[in-house]
């Protein structure tokens, strides 16, 4: 047999056999390469989970004509060259927890290194976020959204050991940033907040020399669609960044037109390729913020990148030369890489019939609690099962809004406050009923006629796609951080838990909760069947209007096991507390629940305080304080 010269044998054969032999031999060669690569390529970091890969981690061929996630650009410099064989390994699965009884590896194992990052790289790209333990639930939400869409080439930077350990035991790949940061919420704008920003810049400057593309994200954002195919459409870009743009510059999914973007470039979502220009930018950015701790990381980035802006790289891509004249920059469209304004207020992507890739909880109020609540309202935040079935049960009601308050007349300060105040009064009653029944209140959707910002504006930003009236985020009116804050019982009475208006629409809501439901219809006392403990055959409880605290307790005493109680209305539902001390404490609590509207143009101060008890003050009118001396909440 002529096996000693197979290529000569194939040359003398018919074309069909030539094809067969070629196919077989090529298959043998590639199989051998894969087997030897799998045998001799051992993990470089012992923290990784040694479990078979999940189906979502298998690399599939892209359909013909569809862009691959790989940009095709090699990192600059020999030190950043990447071995393609190493990247062919299947990623180790996320959410696979370590074996029971095992011990967590030494902290040294979690140090940031090229080998550690390599373990999570696919197509030369890794998606990274970072934070401290206070943002654990945000981080888990961020990870779950990515893994649900099949993106597992991700890493989380842990700024404290508590977070690092928690992520390890949940099977989430993490590394130690060595920050030794506090585990509590540091608050936006605080010195520690700015320290976190500087850590981000150092992190970018550390990862880029490894030769991997980096999609860097803040933890207070959520991925709604796999962004990697979109990023791959711009292989020439050195940096792609999100922005705070609130007026659309394009109506499709192209990059925003850099000539029309006047807002800040937002560094909560941005992608870096390891090119000479991007590494130079990262290095200078790091040196800038480390030299002056008063510089906010985002301001520093904007200052450097805008040092030179223009001309366009070409006629089609949307990229622009920036920074040193060599950096190729692209601005991610604000319509689909959304800010807190373009997503929660404008719903810009819906108006333009587009699919949103991401939402970043900017343009919001009430701190971290406000961010969390917005994501919950949008049903994109992951909570544990007990969140949907709180102790004591849930209370909800059907809000009633007259058409004239919602739609008639100009959208002005007067019509906006008339609309909000009408809803606020119903919510105040609902809070009282929830307090009496010791139930968690499901807040209703809140309608607004004017936008809220932190500077003077005409009510609706010109050029934006905000269409009044609109369902505004709860933090536009209510101080969610105050509502959720622990306050002394002896001064403010018992706390009142709340949930978001979309709670019952959330797919995570258990059916057992929704099935345990009691409808309550208000009726005029003295009318047929309108009395305490009157339940019709339909399972509807009839409750007299203007019920007292004792009447409520009596009426619902036998429904304590019912998980959801829904009132048909809250207008005239409650006549007040029997215990005047408790009533005073309740008032002391809830008057702090509302914030400000901002802001009137050309007036200082320009904000107007909401007043929970506006209806008790004859002649109350929405107006900003006359002077700084008058600038205080209405208590």
From TrEMBL:
<protein>
    <recommendedName>
        <fullName>Nucleotide-diphospho-sugar transferase domain-containing protein</fullName>
    </recommendedName>
</protein>
<feature type="transmembrane region" description="Helical">
    <location>
        <begin position="16"/>
        <end position="40"/>
    </location>
</feature>
<dbReference type="Pfam" id="PF03407">
    <property type="entry name" value="Nucleotid_trans"/>
</dbReference>
<dbReference type="InterPro" id="IPR053250">
    <property type="entry name" value="Glycosyltransferase_77"/>
</dbReference>
<keyword id="KW-0472">Membrane</keyword>
<dbReference type="InterPro" id="IPR005069">
    <property type="entry name" value="Nucl-diP-sugar_transferase"/>
</dbReference>
<keyword id="KW-0812">Transmembrane</keyword>
<keyword id="KW-1133">Transmembrane helix</keyword>
<feature type="domain" description="Nucleotide-diphospho-sugar transferase">
    <location>
        <begin position="151"/>
        <end position="375"/>
    </location>
</feature>
